[in-house]
Specification:
alpha+beta, D-tyrosyl-trna(Tyr) Deacylase, Chain: A, BirA Bifunctional Protein, domain 2, Rossmann fold, 3 domains, six-stranded mixed sheet, 17 helices, 28 strands
Length: 618
């Protein structure tokens, strides 16, 4: 069973019509409760093996949370969207009704009807315990296999602080967030640890309407299809981060996507990494699909001959296919996937001083990356307590470079292989935070995998290692770009992608067919300067063409008519500032080239002529 518990000011629902043939018979179609613990419930197939124990566990969990948040009422709400492996309607209804019967005599309890389409309105209170997710497994049934790190992560006790630019470490509860609203959202999200999503984020409709990406019904959840525009954006991001890492000294390699679960070192590493894996069988052997490029790089480094003169040594892989078996209730759009592209760099260093130097440099690279994508971000830095106490000045230096307060998490114990990590997080339209850039200092795995270097004294020694993804998942960067565009629109700004990532950078709109030849000549000049340009040659009014170009977030719209033909100047609409300008074609080319000269280029992914393009999304 999957449940999502929301402590709310109120819940209001109304049953609209039956969703299944054997829907629950109801007397009242509406329900309302205040100061209510709303429990969204999805009974799963596995619950059918012992539903009574599921009910008992569910009731205990509800009562415990009810008391902790000081709610005054309980609302049970069947919600199938939390799982892809649902119990039969009969069993699910029995579990719901038995739970209701056990609660209604002791607590003020309402229940939304099972098997109906319902509208609902909810107002979450927004405190750290107001959003919680839980998984319940029937007694006697083997739970999903988890690594020790995942189990430890669930039990891990943290203390949360804000470190400001003056080096003051302030408990989260005492920090004044008035001027740092996104930092507050990020802190609340991290502390609550709720990752399930009960509402579709804005980027999902945008990724479809802009024909960037979409769900693939023929695959597993969290495996998406990418359309030509989305593929272009993805490839540009991949090339840019690869260029950044290459310029920094990363040596690019390729390694396999699957590994033997019985490999002695790899099996131990799996237990120290907080992620779920896809498992597959070949003959009598069991393999896991990689969730990062760590494995192949470790084994490659183990076989290398490395001198102290080679340090720091950086290997880099653009892992086009990484896999994590994320929980179904957490999967949504591009934000959290089961198959994704992850640029991974691993750096061997001589000692902790060199590790901190590399950490700092890679932190600065991550800042550059976020600036290149024009993204707002909040920073989280996590430490084992002993390491923080010994490196307070280093932590403060990181905050000074960022120029703003950061969230600090401090662990008393070290359940993972690293002593410190940072994450740059984007906060989306649902106030959910998603990690992008990240770097960790690993003190375990070189010894575990037998990775050594020869020091000045001729002796073999174990280096330390940094794990870095300067960008984070490429797919998640596209999510952040689309969410930012939506948030900009909410603020009254025109939504758009950065110019270098816009699939069409310039669109030419001939007023009529008689200006097509002139428009094509302009296209050829612009295109020859490595700028993505197309022509809307459809038999539509100029007003319609402009509206369609605006809907596609085209950065530059060029209207061609009699005036432009005679004057040798073109009329340009610039989306970034809303200005309408008359300029020469050469001036337009120069303006765009100056803006994108530091970024990679790929040609237009579709026909130059809008009329010749198919629709990928109906």
């Amino acid at each position: 069973m999957r449940i999502l518990l929301i402590h709310s000011d109120y819940l209001r629902f109304k049953a609209r019509k039956k969703a299944i043939k054997n829907a629950e018979e109801i007397r009242a179609r509406e329900g309302y409760a205040e100061n209510v613990l709303v429990v969204f419930i999805a009974a799963e197939k596995i619950d059918e093996e012992n539903p009574d124990t599921v009910v008992d566990q569910l009731v205990d969990e509800i009562i415990d949370t009810y008391k902790r948040v000081n709610a005054e009422s309980i609302a049970l709400y069947p919600y199938a969207h939390l799982s892809s492996s649902l119990a039969s309607p009969r069993v699910a209804m029995e579990i719901l009704n038995e739970t209701y019967d056990k609660l209604k005599y002791k607590f003020k309890t309402i229940k939304a009807p099972f098997g109906w389409y319902k509208s609902f309105e909810i107002k979450c209170k927004g405190h750290p315990l107001s959003e919680l997710s839980r998984s319940i497994v029937p007694e006697g049934v083997e739970k999903e296999k988890e690594s020790k790190a995942l189990r430890a992560e669930k039990k891990l006790k943290s203390e949360w602080y804000i470190l400001n630019t003056d080096g003051e470490l302030i408990p989260v509860s005492e920090f004044e967030f008035n001027n740092f609203k996104n930092l507050k959202k990020f802190a609340d999200y991290e502390i609550s640890k709720v990752r399930a999503v009960d509402k579709e984020p804005a980027h999902v409709s945008l990724m479809r309407s802009h024909e960037i990406a979409d769900y693939e019904p023929g695959s597993d959840q969290g495996n998406l299809r990418w359309y030509p525009k989305g593929s272009l954006i993805k490839r540009l991001l991949e090339e840019h981060v690869s260029n950044i890492v290459s310029d920094y000294g990363g040596m690019q390699v390729e390694t396999p996507v699957m590994y033997d679960t019985s490999h002695p070192q790899l099996s131990k590493y799996l237990d120290r990494f907080p992620a779920r894996q896809y498992i597959l069988k070949s003959g009598n052997k069991e393999y896991f699909l990689r969730f990062a490029a760590c494995f192949g790089q470790y084994l490659m480094k183990r076989d290398m001959v490395i001198s102290y003169r080679n340090l720091p040594l950086r290997l880099y892989e653009l892992s086009h296919y990484s896999f994590r078996y994320e929980q179904s209730g957490e999967l949504v759009g591009l934000r959290r996937l089961r198959a994704f592209t992850m640029p991974d760099m691993h750096t061997l260093v001589r000692d902790m001083e060199q590790a901190k130097e590399e950490f700092l440099n890679q932190y600065k690279l991550a800042i550059k990356w976020m600036n290149d994508l024009e993204l707002d971000y909040e920073i989280g830095i996590r430490f084992v307590r002993d390491f923080y106490e010994e490196n307070k000045e280093f932590a403060t230096k990181l905050v000074e470079i960022a120029g703003k307060p950061v969230l600090i998490e401090i662990w008393d114990e070290r359940p993972f292989y690293f002593v410190m990590k940072f994450e740059f997080n984007f906060v989306d339209s649902l106030d959910k935070a998603s990690a992008l850039s990240t770097v960790q200092i690993d003190i375990e795995n070189t010894e575990r995998f037998g990775i050594t270097y020869v020091d000045e004294d001729g002796r073999e020694k174990f280096p330390l290692m940094l794990h870095a993804s300067i960008s984070g998942s490429i797919d998640r960067n596209v999510y952040a770009l689309l969410e930012k565009a939506y948030l900009d629109k909410q603020k009254g700004k025109k939504p758009m992608l950065p110019l270098w990532l816009s699939p069409t950078q310039v669109r030419i709109l001939p007023v009529s067919d008689e200006f097509m030849k002139f428009s094509e000549k302009i296209l050829e000049v612009i295109e020859s300067n490595r700028i993505r340009v197309d022509i809307d040659d459809r038999n539509e009014s100029i007003g319609r063409k402009i509206r369609d170009a605006e809907r596609e977030w085209i950065p530059y719209i060029v209207v061609i008519g009699e005036k432009e033909l005679k004057s040798n100047k073109i009329s340009v609409r610039r989306r970034s500032d809303g200005k309408h300008i008359e300029m020469t074609v050469d001036c337009l080319v120069d303006e765009i080239k100056n803006s994108i000269k530091e970024f990679p280029f790929k040609p237009l992914p579709l026909s130059r002529f809008v009329s010749k393009r198919p629709r990928f999304v109906g």
